Amino acid sequence: MILLRRLLGDVLRRQRQRQGRTLREVSSSARVSLGYLSEVERGQKEASSELLSAICDALDVRMSELMREVSDELALAELAQSARATEPVPTSVRPMLGSVSVTGVPPERVTIKAPAEAVDVVAA
């Protein structure tokens, strides 16, 4: 099962780490407890829209950019989940996934690192 809170947490953590900032810095700037922010980043807590707005402001990232990155990861995770459940990924889709392999992956959690450029996923 794909959990949106995990994907969101992964994207928030990457945004913070890209900026070279600590949990403490971002939690202070967002006015949220360090422990709670950590739980959000680990996908253990669902973040409210108000909390996401505060974190995005602290990271100087537009919420729409954050959600777009989450959406891209969700699309890739759904594609990987679908491929695991049914058939191998079609040859026409493989170039978009790069070197991602979905065979032998435990069903509890799949992490796919999307390429830096935009990826169009077209369902047949």
Question: What can be said about this structure in brief?
Answer:
This protein is mostly helical and 124 residues long.
Please describe what this structure looks like.
This protein is mostly helical and 124 residues long. The chain has helices at 4-18, 23-30, 34-41, 49-59, 63-85, 94-97.
Please render the helix and strand layout as text.
Layout: H1 4-18, H2 23-30, H3 34-41, H4 49-59, H5 63-85, H6 94-97
What labels describe this entry?
124 residues, mainly alpha, elongated
Distance between the termini: 22 Å
Helix and strand content put the structural class at: mainly alpha
What percent of the residues sit in helical stretches (DSSP H or I)? 55-70%
What is the tally of beta strands? 0
Poorly predicted segments: 99-105, 116-120
* Rg, nearest Å: 16 Å
Inertia-based shape = elongated
